[in-house]
C-alpha cells in the first residue's frame, strides 16, 4: 500500500449519557493529518448517522478508507456498515480486538421489544468477522466495500506494531482526551 493512502479511524470514549466519537485521518506512513469529532447516545440508535455525518463534515476526498473500532459503541448503539459504505462511498472495516461468541446473547439480556429487534436486525445484517493476524496479535475484521484479502492488507498496512491499526489508536486517544475536556467543561 502506498505510504500516502489515508484512512479515517473512528473510535469512542464515553461517560454518562453520550459518547464522544473521534475520527483521525492517518496516512499509511503513520502521519496524522486531520481530526473530526462527533457524538452519539449511550444505548441509542444514532451511531451510524453520527459516523456518516462526521465523514461528511470532514469533507476530505483524499480519505480512501474508513476504520471503525467495534460494531456496537456507546453501549450497543449498533453500527450499520453497509449504510455507512452506501452513504460515504468508502470501504468500511469494523475492527474488534477480542474473540467472542457475538453480541446476540448480551443484546437479548439487555434489551427487549423494538430496541432489541432493530439491534438484532442491524447486527445480523453485518458481514461475519474474519480473524486477521497482525504481528503477534489477532484482530477481528468485518468489511464492506472491499474483499477479505484487501481488508487484511489494509489492517496490516496501517498497523506498525501491536494489534491496533494506527488510525484507531490515534482516534481512541483523541476521543479520550476530548471526552475528558468535555467532562471538565461540564463541571
Q: Could you characterize what this model shows?
A:
The protein has helices at residues 47-58, 73-76, 81-88, 104-110, 113-124, 148-157, 166-186, and strands at 6-15, 18-27, 32-41, 63-69, 92-96, 130-134, 137-144. The model has no long low-confidence stretch (mean pLDDT 94). The chain is globular. A hairpin with a 2-residue loop joins strand 6 (130-134) and strand 7 (137-144). It has 187 residues and is α/β, with parallel strands linked by helices. It has one domain (6-180): archaeoglobus fulgidus dsm 4304 superfamily (archaeoglobus fulgidus dsm 4304 fold, 2-Layer Sandwich), CATH 3.30.2170.10. It has a seven-stranded mixed sheet, with helices on both faces. Helix 4 runs antiparallel to helix 5 (113-124). It has seven helices and seven strands. Belongs to the UPF0215 family. This is UPF0215 protein HLRTI_000325. It holds the Pfam family Endo_dU.
Could you give a short account of the major beta sheet? 7 strands, mixed
Report, as a whole number of angstroms, the end-to-end distance.
Answer: 45 Å
Number of strands: 7
CATH topology group: archaeoglobus fulgidus dsm 4304 fold
CATH homologous superfamily designation:
archaeoglobus fulgidus dsm 4304 superfamily
Low-pLDDT stretches are none
The radius of gyration computed from the alpha-carbon positions, rounded to a whole number of angstroms, is 16 Å
Note the overall shape: globular
Name the quaternary structure.
Answer: single chain
Helix content: 25-40%
Query: What does the average pLDDT come to?
Result: 94
SSE ordering: EEEHEHHEHHEEHH
CATH class: Alpha Beta
Number of helices: 7
Please give the CATH architecture. Answer: 2-Layer Sandwich
Q: Any idea how many domains? A: 1
Structural category:
alpha/beta
Tell me the fraction of residues in β-strands, as a range: 25-35%
Amino acid at each position: 500500500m502506498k505510504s500516502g493512502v489515508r484512512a479515517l479511524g473512528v473510535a469512542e470514549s464515553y461517560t454518562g449519557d453520550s459518547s464522544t466519537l473521534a475520527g483521525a485521518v492517518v496516512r499509511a506512513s503513520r502521519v496524522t493529518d486531520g481530526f473530526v469529532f462527533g457524538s452519539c447516545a449511550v444505548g441509542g440508535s444514532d451511531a451510524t448517522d453520527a459516523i456518516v455525518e462526521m465523514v461528511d463534515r470532514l469533507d476530505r476526498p483524499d480519505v480512501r478508507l474508513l476504520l471503525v473500532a467495534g460494531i456496537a459503541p456507546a453501549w450497543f448503539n449498533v453500527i450499520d456498515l453497509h449504510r455507512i459504505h452506501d452513504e460515504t462511498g468508502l470501504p468500511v472495516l469494523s475492527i474488534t480486538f477480542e474473540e467472542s461468541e457475538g453480541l446476540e446473547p448480551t443484546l437479548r439480556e439487555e434489551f427487549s421489544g423494538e430496541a432489541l429487534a432493530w439491534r438484532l436486525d442491524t447486527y445480523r445484517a453485518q458481514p461475519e468477522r474474519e480473524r486477521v493476524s497482525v504481528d503477534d496479535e489477532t484482530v477481528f475484521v468485518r468489511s464492506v466495500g472491499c474483499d477479505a484479502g484487501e481488508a487484511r492488507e489494509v489492517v496490516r498496512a496501517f498497523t506498525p506494531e501491536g494489534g491496533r491499526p494506527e488510525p484507531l489508536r490515534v482516534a481512541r486517544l483523541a476521543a479520550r482526551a476530548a471526552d475528558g475536556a468535555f467532562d471538565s467543561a461540564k463541571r
